[in-house]
Design brief:
- The structure is a single chain.
- With about 400 residues, the protein is an alpha+beta fold.
- Among the domains are: about 140 residues, 2-Layer Sandwich (Gyrase A, domain 2), CATH 3.30.1360; about 100 residues, Elongation Factor Tu (Ef-tu), domain 3, CATH 2.40.30.110.
- Helices cover about 20% and strands about 35% of the residues.
- It is built from eight helices and 19 strands.
- The strands form four sheets. A six-stranded mixed beta sheet has the order 10-11-12-9-3-13, sandwiched between helices. Strands 14-17-16-15-18-19 form a six-stranded antiparallel beta barrel. A five-stranded antiparallel beta sheet has the order 5-6-7-4-8, with helices on one face.
- Strand 6 and strand 7 form a beta hairpin.
- The chain is globular, with a radius of gyration of 21 Å.
- The model has no long low-confidence stretch (mean pLDDT about 95).
Length: about 400
Amino acid sequence: MIQPQPYEVQVLETPFHSRTAELCKTNEWSTWSGYTTPDVYTNMELEYFAARNTATLFDISPMTKYAITGPDAGRYLDRLLTRDMAKVNPGRVAYGLWCNDAGMVIDDGTVFCLGENDYRLCSQERHLPWLLDSAIGYEVAIEDITAGIAAVSLQGPTSCAVLKAMGFVGIEELKPYAHAEFQLGGHPLMISRTGFTGDLGYELWIEPAGAGELWDRLMEGGRLHGIRPLGSKALDMTRIEAGFIQAGVEFFPGDLSTRPDRLRSPFEIGMGWLVDFEKGHFIGRRALLREKQTGSRHALVGLDIAGNKPAHHSFIFQGRNKEVGIVTSALWSPTCKRNIALASLRTPYDKAHGLWADVYVHREQKWERIKAPCRVVDKQFFNPPRRWATPAGDR
């Protein structure tokens, strides 16, 4: 079945919509790249605890997907992204980001190396005009294949056990950031050990015609392993605990902004490790070299905040009175048992004088202001060994 494009209808339905709509008892939905997706199926807290203790399914079909092929596909991606793509071999997945000429981040995403000069780039936002403009001079084909691929994320401690119950022999040997090919009911199925929860997990990619069967088989395979569907609100809780950044939250996509001073570089969102100056030229290299020499304007940090009231969108003060930044994401973490946040701080800031979060709490028709002390910590608040273990365990 030919899928309509986002500009052809008001709201698109993913290939899994018949299953997700039946399970979404709260009727809480939002849009993602033109598709309607569930925010909460039954209860956000129960969905969150399933992600951390059993297994969950999250429909990632709206994720923008581009096929990048042709004799210059590898060279093109090496110029586009800040990391060394020559090191990404077939069967591997690389997380990366790309910048404009000023060294400001346009977006981040994953690149699947499917074969020699055969790649799939996945991102939250749509960037086809930028990708095409950046390809001038290269013998490369770039195609938006979002509508042609159904994808679902299987995450949680029992996710590997679910796939083993479905008969995917050897899946426990799949390494983090690797992918492998399987068959499901006559449909080619790619399984990658990737995800957005910071836990053991996989993403499954199939043609839309096989989406219903895939969802049903996953739910049946996970019946004895505590599987349940996961809404976007519970997913957001897990990605904050993992310290993962999100476009439109920790940074604004560089090709969509009307205020250049609001953009962020890789160094300013804690992604400096993805910048490889040794590989040769890439878009934004000169600007990033200057920043490396002169210093960055901002720093994205993890915060441990006193109390148990999440510091949503709070100002961060140094010495109680000097405003030095804002909280981008916040959460009282049920797993970490800590009040955590990601925050963008202006540099330099002085830890010695103490940092304070300006937290506003609404209690029974009254707003209360709390000045809560906080300290800078590793922003990977949750990073269990099972996430990296090979072979993967069953729980």
